Amino acid sequence: MPAKTIYWISTLLVSAMLLWSSYSYIFSESTIQGIRDLGFPDFFRIQLAVLKLLAVLILVVPQIPLTVKEWAYAGVGLFFITAIVAHFAHKDPIAINLINVVFIGLLIVSRIYLHKLS
After folding, report:
1. For the whole model, what pTM was predicted?
2. Which residue of 1, 2, 25, 33 is surrounded by the most CB atoms within 10 Å?
3. 14 near 103, Cβ under 8 Å?
4. Number of domains in the chain
C-alpha cells in the first residue's frame, strides 16, 4: 500500500475519533456524566472538545507547518495516555483502554508516514 494511502487512512481514522469524541463531550449526556464520574470538571471537558477540534484541523490540512503538526501529535498522544490512566483508575472495562491503545498506534503510524511523505 502506498505511503500516502497509509498516512491518510491512519490520519482520518484518528481524526474521526477526535471529531466523534468532541461531539460527545458537548452533546452526549452519558459522556458528559462519564467525564464527571472520572473526576474532571466541566471546563476541562469543553477545553478538551475544542482542543480536539483544533487538532483535527491541524492534522488534516496539508498547508499547516510540520512543527505545528508535531505539537498536535504530541497533544493527541497525551490525550490518549491521560484517557488510559483515567479509565484504568476508574476501573472501567479493559476494552476502553484497548481502544485507546489502538488509536495511539494509529497516531504513531500517521506521524511516521507524515515524515515519509515530507
Report:
1. 0.92
2. 25
3. yes
4. 1
